[in-house]
Amino acid sequence: MKSVLKIMSFVGLSFMMTSCFDKSAPNYQFFPNMYEPVPYETYAESDAFNSPSGEKGKEGQIPAVGTIKRGFTPYEIPNTPEGYAASKANPSPLTADQIDSEKGKELFTIYCAICHGEAGDGKGNLSKREKFLGVPNYKDREITVGSVFHVETYGINAMGSHANQLSKEERWQVADYVMKLKSELK
Fold first, then answer.
1. Rounded distance, CA 110 to CA 99, Å?
2. Range of the domain at 147
3. Is 137 among the domain residues?
């Protein structure tokens, strides 16, 4: 009788355990996020970086206030007409032994001569082909080494900024070379 009771309780217990089992809908998941991931759309808005201003997803893309990229030294003179006028009094920070005319000439040839010409006379290939009109001759301009650096940094009129292509020291090298070209023009 005892063995029949054991067999009956075993059968009853196994019936109870298997009666609730359904392969199409499991009863309990220990870590539901691992089994059922949230499908994100590629370019959809996300609540991951909500900013106090209410813009969704923008706070994580904005750099912290006051940060600058590595190796960058800010240029304090603003990009305004007043800043351009103030830059004319700005001397070159390079000492006489740091100025490399050959390096300045090489950089001028690469970045500037296509418009301004090899001699700085405003007759580069793009000017000759009339792609850009009104490229100034350095002889006719009232420029200083500081104003040339300012224009290289921010750009002016049709000329764009060269701050991404040239480092601060390289822009000063080119500015010194431009002043050398200006002195050679008749």
1. 18
2. 81-184
3. yes
pLDDT digits (tens, 9 = 90+) for 17-58: 776 666 676 666 677 777 777 777 787 776 666 666 666 656
Tally of CB atoms within 10 A around 84: 17
The span from the CA of 78 to the CA of 129, in Å, is 34
**67 within a domain of the structure (yes/no):** no
Burial grade of 140 (CB within 10 A; 0-12, 13-18, 19 or more): exposed
Name the domain count of the chain.
1
**Of residues 65, 63, 45, the one with CA closest to residue 55:** 45
Report the predicted TM-score, pTM, of the whole model to 2 decimal places.
Answer: 0.63
CATH number for the domain harbouring residue 146: 1.10.760.10
Burial of 15 (0-12, 13-18, 19+ CB in 10 A): exposed
